[in-house]
Amino acid sequence: MEFTEFYRSERDRCLRAVLAGVADRQVAEDLVAEAFTRAWMSWHKVRRHPAPRAWVVRTALNLRVSWWRRHRREVDLGDGHVDTADGTGEPGGGLDPALLRLLRALPPRQREVIAFRVFLDLDTAATAKALGMAPGTVTAHLSRAIATLRGHLVVNHSQEQS
Amino acid sequence: MNDHDTDVLDTLRGSLDAVTMGTPVEDIVSTGRARRNRRRLATVAAGTVAVAGVALGVASLANPPAGPPATAPGVNAAGEVHVRTVAYTVDSRADGTVQVTWTKQQWFEDPAGLEAALRQAGFPVVVKVGEFCAGPGDDLTLVHGTGPGVTGVVRPLAGADATFVFDASALPPGKQLFIGYLTPAQLEVTGGSPGSVERLVPIDTPLTCTTVAPPREGRPAGSEEDPSAKPVKPVK
User: How far is B220 from chain A (nearest CA, A)?
Assistant: First the structure.
């Protein structure tokens, strides 16, 4: 597979996965662009990876810390994640702020499991390998995340229908 | 995972369906390419600083950056060649000659790069390691590894150690310089004298090369009836 083909077929899926992990639309795009750039530079290696899109998302999520360190104007929200502090109130780039708040309410590892299991559509074993945790831990994180999300998403869904 | 769990995850997945990546692939590739080129140049510069102690305007013909540069690597806007590597330096001089500095030990680091650098500077040369070449009818006499006419073409720079001036205008028409460096094993046989063979050889005529090193001073052992001698394609 050529890099251009890979990028065009996987970029949106990777962006949504990283967005689930960082809950900030612009940050997610920056991280994914950087991760794809690194994939291009190491394409001879990445192309042979069993799940290249997982490599991209793993790289993007690993870049979070350094990305936030570079952006001093941002304010720590207290859970190790940050939001923009420029007053625009649009860290989600037009996404529902309630959804982003809901994602941020999840512990980071639960968000990572959602990113790989839900948005990259990897199975439990592949997710466990990508995140360096036991398959049972993946299942537990996903179960807890679903429990947290269930009420909020169902409530929202019900409100839209009413 | 039950149906209710699947519904939750489907709802979450669907909530991000409208999110798409706005960065075009061309931006990704151009950023990666520029970064890779910078790293290559930085690597060359680091090697130069470590050995030569100079770091300004560094480029290497042996490691050209990807993509077409405005001028060839090591060539400035005036067409002058200035190359620094761990093995040698090559600089164009105002009088048309080329100043080269090397140590024989470091020569083995990059003979092909030196050959390319000299050619870039306008000096026709063939450089080999462990092979010794000559054209048909060439005078094979060597004195301290140097053939007839070479001393007028390659002159040591007064007051400098291992620095030479290569003068292309002193080459006879149709001739180029051949430099063959002895390998470490060959140097053990000669005791370092000679450590290399320099000859003026034809440009457009096939050369015959041997892997047999010259003896300690004088005529190369392989220049007479050497069974390992083999013809090579003309080098231009």
Answer: 47
Q: What angle do CA B64, B70, B75 make, to 5 degrees?
A: 65
- What is the rounded distance in angstroms from the CA atom of residue A110 to the CA atom of residue B6? 16
Q: What is the ipTM of this complex?
A: 0.78
Measure the CA–CA gap between A116 and A109, rounded to whole angstroms: 11
Inter-chain touch B19–A38, beta carbons under 8 Å: no
pLDDT for A68:
59
Q: What is the rounded CA–CA span in Å between residue A57 and residue B37?
A: 25
- Tell me the residue length of chain A: 162
- The chain-wide mean pLDDT, for chain A, equals 81
Nearest residue in chain A measured CA to CA from B8:
A150
pLDDT of amino acid B170: 84
Residue of A nearest to B33 (CA): A41
3-class SS of residue B98:
strand
pTM equals 0.48
B116 vs B17, which has greater pLDDT? B17
What residues of chain B lie within 8 A of the CB of A142, using their CB?
1
